[in-house]
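User: Continuing from earlier, I have the next pair ready.

Assistant: Great, send them over.

User: Here they are, in order.

Assistant: Folding the first of the pair now:
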Amino acid sequence: MEYNSSRELLVIPEYGRHIQKMVRYARTIENADERQAYVEQIAKLMMQMHPQNRNLEDYRDKIWKHLFRIAEYDLDVLPPSGHKPTPEEGRKKPQTVPYPAKGHKFRHYGHNVLTMIDKALAMEDGPKKDGFVQVIGSYMKLAYKTWNREHYVSDHIIIEDLATLSGGKLIPIEDASLDNLSKYNNRRSSNAGGGSKGGRSRDNGHYRSGGKNNNRRGGGGGRRSSGGGRRK
């Protein structure tokens, strides 16, 4: 008996040992046309093993890349795309995620604040820019409250931090409140909570449980009156 541990290792186990043997045998075929036709049949067989992926646009190219990988890239055939896969392509590494390289002094505001400030600095002066700066200030105050719930924050602190981050170029409108986003969130949560309570508790101005008790009391009253009739 021959154990799998003593056999040749499978390059891609999901296709099985027979596919690997057929690919290795294709390398021994001397006639180029016969070898091309034989390998194309192997590719069709590999596609039949995973029919759920047939509709994928790049699935055929993926099959041929796997086929060349099983053959250790030593196979003189031409894929339908006209490009032979190479070992370098099989060892591609994912691109490095571009994390922000620079940090900033006020981390509790987050990196999005810096992005919005850069966008505001590139805008032309006018009402649109003033409104956008006001939104940035409101967002900064909301972020400050999220991470510092135990400390009170005034508009004056937010204005100073915004001026520091923008190099003194962005200052919100005077006497304008920066609590717009907080008020909007509170109003939305209160509306959602009020609608659900009203629908569950009352029915035509009375509690539903009270209606059942009233029916029971009415029925009891009827039995007592009938009992009084029998006493007479």
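And the other member of the pair:
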Amino acid sequence: MSIKRGIKLMMLQLAFMFLQTNMQAQPMMQKQSAPESFGNTLNLGVGPGYFGYLGVPAPFFFANYEFDVLRNFTLAPFIGITSYRSDAYYYGNNDYYYHETVIPIGVKGTYYFDELLNAPSRWDFYAAASVGFAIDNVTWDNGYTGDRGVAHKADPLYLDLHIGAEYHVSHKVGLFLDLSTGVSTFGVAFHHL
């Protein structure tokens, strides 16, 4: 299954879960009169990183911790990691590979649209932007003395735009899908830590 088809399928499943939750007569979690708090949340995710500089999708793991800053707005310091092995480069009667590891570090600003959308208490909907820097390490197989310029080097400035949704399984745990311009992830959120 292609990545695009998988993402579309996940979005359809999230939409179905949203409609199902909205139609329940007695939701398990009641809306509170006080504004919802989105901070004090640890988010752990995995998904495809399709950075333009890698040239192909690569598995990506990330973690961030959200803090409330303003009503419906959080900031979250983050760190991620992805690693990629190139296709073979034929040189001197041998095949050689390079290995690239990218570690983005920065902060993600998130605005939640729950109030605006009058979303059920089990759902969060957001748009976000991430900014930071990417540590990039490229190593070649031993013995390779050819052109090392063919390796895709990551831009040290890390920028990413996001849209996403989270479904709260309980008061403490949620499942989220975060679609973005560089790294899309599915993961688990641990609230009120």
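Worth noting for the second one:
The beta strands are 41-49, 58-70, 73-85, 89-91, 94-96, 98-112, 123-140, 157-168, 173-180, 185-190. The CA atoms of residues 19 and 54 lie 37 Å apart.
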